[in-house]
Amino acid sequence: MAEAANGTATLAGLDLYRQLTILVGQASGTLEKRMLRRHGVTPLEYMALSKLADAGDDSLRMNDLAEAVGVNPSTVSRLMGRLEGGELARREICEADRRATYARITDQGQRVVREAAATFDDDFASALDAAAVDSRTAALVSLLRQG
């Protein structure tokens, strides 16, 4: 974030952060409701399952999964608890290094990823379209779509 001569954040930096906060809040709320209703998973759970499905052997070290979805290890541990409860993923101890724990997607988790992909993509695109015409977030959406 840019800093003005007096040490305060510049308006541009603050405005960009405000737009990001609004955009994430709006998109998360919309996606959360629709993903839960249609597929029984939150966007974060879907993201984690997708990362596991894309992994070479359908598994990742728990710390790598946390990094891949942008959360800390304790959050990914709680996340895995919910996924295990829904029989969408399971934890496995590494045989070569008993200190390491892996997250592995189940067949049911694979099915959820396949079925939820279009819902997530369509609803996220709709959330961005709505944000593109909202004066509070339009500039950020424009920047995101350029990338």
TrEMBL record:
Any one Gene Ontology BP term: response to stress
- Going by the entry's taxonomy, the superkingdom of the source organism is recorded as Bacteria
Q: The HTH marR-type domain covers which part of the protein?
A: 13-147
What SMART domains does the entry give? Answer: HTH_MARR
Q: Which InterPro entries match?
A: HTH_MarR-typ, MarR/SlyA-like, WH-like_DNA-bd_sf, WH_DNA-bd_sf
Write the protein's name. HTH marR-type domain-containing protein
List the top taxonomic levels of the source: Bacteria, Bacillati, Actinomycetota, Actinomycetes, Kitasatosporales
Residues in the signal sequence: none
Q: Name one Pfam family in it.
A: MarR_2
Output the Gene3D superfamilies linked to this UniProt entry.
Answer: Winged helix-like DNA-binding domain superfamily/Winged helix DNA-binding domain
- Name the Gene Ontology molecular function terms of this record: DNA-binding transcription factor activity
